[in-house]
Amino acid sequence: MIPFGDLKLQYQAIKIELDQAIQSVLDEGWFILGKNVSAFETEFAAYCDAAFAVGVGNGTDALQLALMACGVGPGDEVITSPLSATFTALAISAAGAIPTFIDIDADTYNIDPRKLEDAIGPRTKAIMPVHLYGQPAAMEPILSAARKHDLLVIEDAAQAHGTSYKGHRTGTLGDVGCFSFYPSKNLGAFGDGGMVITNNPEIAEKLRMLRNGGQKTRYDHQLIGVNSRLDELQAAILRVKLRYLEKWNHRRQHIAALYTALLGDSEVDPPVEIPDATHVYHLYVVRCKERDELQKHLAERGVQTAIHYPTPIHLQGAYRWLNLRRGSFPVAERCAEQVLSLPVYPELTDAKVRQIAAHVMGWHH
Ligand SMILES: *Cc1c(COP(=O)(O)O)cnc(C)c1O
Asked: Ligand 1 centroid to 57 CA: how many Å?
């Protein structure tokens, strides 16, 4: 049996350091907004080449707070991808704005910037590109459309810790970058966590207030904020793990390269890497027309796979009121029927990757 993921393996590999970090928080007895959160904010900002980082409760809140800090709210529309975690759109809704979608590029699964111009309307306030599966969206055309129409760009980098695009870390290309530390992400906590990064000092200041009930100083609530803070335990854990992120990302890239080499003549399409960017393979996603059959074939041979995502956001019940339907975004809809995520995590051995690839090669429609 090869599981889709196994978080125990990562813990076991660096157990001593993690146990020490956790114990020291317990010994200190300070759990909310303390020295670990500040230190991790500084370290994560440095890692991303960003001026500021603000720790929050999770990735969805990071997106919502980024929108709020940029002044995006009721009456505004935000353009994003229909093929993402639905949480991307939920964050837009939570900020009081309306998610609008453009179709994706069939090769990269990221938004197709050629579709932007037609989608930008009088209410459009921001673009929220998602760096899906760990590969940056086509930021250059996205940023130039944003400049032309005076739109904000808020990056959903929840799957893209450590990627870069034309030499710049994702999360710093737009106005604000948002990360999730959900346990299975490339940098994962032992619970929920998130981070917002920016080079804009005013946005950073506003984020610090918004995540903490809108307080400027204690008991002085200047904004209608939320309660969404990264906690000391998670920050202490993430500080340890951040030191391994580059190594883990390289291991993911090695596994991806091995899969792609082994799957050369198979009936599935491996991921397409764009030039001038790095892909950190949060997910290794192949595509094939008879996806469900392939998934069953692999399951019968003990290989657990997953689908990201089976239902595009515009077809989710929560967004029925947008009156979009099947056919609204045909590329995203087709991809949702054909994508299959194979196991990829730093602890997965080359031998297991070869086994999985052999099972894929052994499948014939
Ligand atoms: C994980 C994820 C989120 C949400 O992050 P949480 O920490 O689970 O709230 C948002 N967008 C994308 C693309 C994600 O993968």
From this structure: 12
Per-residue pLDDT of the chain (365 residues; tens, 9 = 90+): 999 999 999 999 999 999 999 999 999 999 999 999 999 999 999 999 999 999 999 999 999 999 999 999 999 999 999 999 999 999 999 999 999 999 999 999 999 999 999 999 999 999 999 999 999 999 999 999 999 999 999 999 999 999 999 999 999 999 999 999 999 999 999 999 999 999 999 999 999 999 999 999 999 999 999 999 999 999 999 999 999 999 999 999 999 999 999 999 889 999 999 999 999 999 999 999 999 999 999 999 999 999 999 999 999 999 999 999 999 999 999 999 999 999 999 999 999 999 999 999 999 87
Residue 58 near ligand 1, beta carbon < 6 Å? yes
Q: What is the Å distance from ligand 1's center to 60 Cα? A: 6
Residue ending a domain, among 222, 242, 262, is: 242
Q: Are 92 and 99 in contact (CB under 8 A)?
A: yes
One domain for residues 225 and 336: no
Q: Domain holding 311: CATH number?
A: 3.90.1150.10
- The Cα 163–Cα 29 span in angstroms is 35
Choose one of 132, 178, 182 to mutate for the ligand 1 pocket test, by most ligand atoms within 8 angstroms of C-beta. Answer: 182
Taking the centre of ligand 1 as the mean of its atom positions, its distance from the CA of residue 46, in whole angstroms, is 22
236 and 266 together in one domain: no
Ligand 1 nearest atom to the CA of residue 130, by list position: 13
The number of the ligand 1 atom at minimal distance from the alpha carbon of 62 is 9
Six token digits for residue 21: 């970090």
State both tokens at 64. 């919502």
Q: Which structural domain range is residue 315 located in?
A: 245-361
User: Do both 333 and 354 map to the same domain?
Assistant: yes
User: Which residues are paired to 267 by β-bridges?
Assistant: none
Helix 291-300 × helix 350-361 angle, to 10°? 130
296/304 Cα distance (integer angstroms)? 9
Alpha-carbon distance of 195 to 56, in angstroms, equals 5
Looking at 186, 220, 242, the residue that finishes a domain is: 242
